[in-house]
Structure to design on (413 residues):
């Protein structure tokens, strides 16, 4: 039997003030006062009031011997100095106003920072926008969500690490990624664990799904993960697309198939006779074009958005895995919410998930239509050969920890 590995992802963020992060902190109100002092001092010297000028300039520049030096400066130079000082004063006042404005938070409003790696056109982003709308509406504005898409705050892994560290409130992560340090989540990568789409959603929306959200709180070694599961977004089913025709598991023999850096996925492809090849998704187009790999596996929207269909003209819909996206909150955030705030966020998450699910369904249908238009041969395969070839993988990853979970998933209606 295989044992699940546990990998720590919560690397500490670099501390400000180290050699790699130097930042000078200036109080904007202080710069406004310095600017004012300089301006008044210069004005007084230029107008002949040297004694009064010293009062303002000496605290900044030290003792001033005489006002003759300043009077000896040309008028144009004096005007230049005066202009600079006025600029300092104006800038200081402006930043002072901004600083004061930024530091003032609206009483009773909690602002949550949400980040993910996908573009704004993706169903995940639109689902998170719906979560934002519903949470803000139901809380009467007491919850406010700011969303940062397209890796603005880092890759999926980096966002996950930030949520664990408590420096980011909410993110979206594939269940496969969570399986790297919460072993139970690797069951989502097991082939044909779900009979079909209806069974898949019966599990996620039932007791098992709720249990898995709770399981996210704890690592395989029993220590806190820093996470709290909120709900699931649809990411469809994964199927093989290749350069040459594939209609059954036998056709995969000898073919190099790109997979995620997920041991379960690698074992599955190997059991089917293929050669699993982990390659980053961003490098996959070139790898397919150059013949480094013969194919890959993913859902229809990802097949389209990556433009891999320009190279791979065969898409066999074997639906070997259904791996959900999980919306995760920081345990730091969750533990700070009161019961009412948790109810607002939880109910908004539940309805946003249904909204995103419908978006995903429409996106999948549109993607398949586009693939057909682009000349891709879409094969509705009999999954029997794929299921039989990969049956040993489920047994390999069944142990004392996962057996009850797998049994409950299979028994769900």
């Amino acid at each position: 039997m295989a044992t699940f590995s546990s990998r720590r992802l919560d690397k500490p963020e670099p501390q400000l003030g180290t050699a790699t992060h130097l930042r000078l902190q200036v109080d904007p109100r202080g710069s406004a006062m310095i600017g004012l002092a300089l301006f008044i001092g210069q004005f007084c010297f230029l107008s002949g009031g040297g004694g009064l000028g010293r009062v303002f300039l000496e605290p900044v520049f030290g003792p001033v011997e005489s006002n003759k030096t300043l009077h000896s400066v040309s008028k144009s130079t004096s005007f230049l100095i005066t202009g600079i000082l006025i600029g300092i004063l104006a800038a200081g006042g402006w930043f002072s106003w901004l600083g004061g404005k930024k530091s003032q938070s609206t009483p009773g409003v909690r602002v949550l920072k949400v980040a993910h790696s996908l573009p704004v056109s993706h169903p995940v982003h639109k689902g998170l926008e719906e979560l934002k709308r519903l949470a803000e509406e139901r809380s009467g504005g007491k919850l406010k969500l700011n969303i940062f898409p397209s890796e603005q705050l880092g890759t999926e892994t980096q966002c996950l690490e930030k949520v664990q560290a408590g420096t980011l409130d909410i993110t979206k992560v594939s269940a496969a990624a969570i399986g790297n340090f919460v072993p139970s989540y690797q069951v989502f990568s097991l082939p044909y664990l779900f009979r079909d789409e209806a069974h898949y959603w019966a599990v996620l929306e039932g007791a098992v799904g709720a249990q898995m959200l709770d399981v996210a709180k704890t690592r395989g070694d029993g220590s806190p993960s820093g996470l709290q599961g909120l709900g699931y977004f649809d990411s469809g089913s994964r199927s093989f697309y290749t350069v040459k025709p594939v209609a059954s598991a036998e056709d995969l023999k000898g073919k190099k198939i790109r997979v995620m850096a997920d041991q379960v996925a690698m074992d599955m492809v190997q059991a089917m006779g293929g050669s699993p090849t982990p390659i980053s998704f961003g490098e996959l187009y070139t790898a397919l074009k150059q013949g480094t790999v013969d194919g890959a596996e993913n859902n229809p929207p990802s097949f389209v958005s990556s433009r891999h269909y320009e190279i791979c003209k065969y898409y066999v819909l074997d639906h070997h895995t259904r791996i959900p996206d999980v919306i995760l909150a920081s345990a730091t955030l969750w533990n700070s919410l009161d019961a009412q705030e948790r109810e607002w966020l939880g109910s908004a998450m539940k309805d946003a998930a249904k909204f995103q699910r419908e978006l995903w369904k429409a996106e999948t249908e549109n993607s398949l239509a586009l693939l057909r238009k682009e000349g891709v041969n879409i094969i509705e395969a009999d999954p029997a050969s794929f299921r039989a070839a990969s049956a040993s993988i489920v047994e390999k990853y069944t142990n004392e920890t996962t057996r009850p979970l797998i049994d409950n998933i299979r028994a769900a209606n």
Summary: Residues 339-373 form the longest helix (35 residues). The two ends are 28 Å apart (CA to CA).
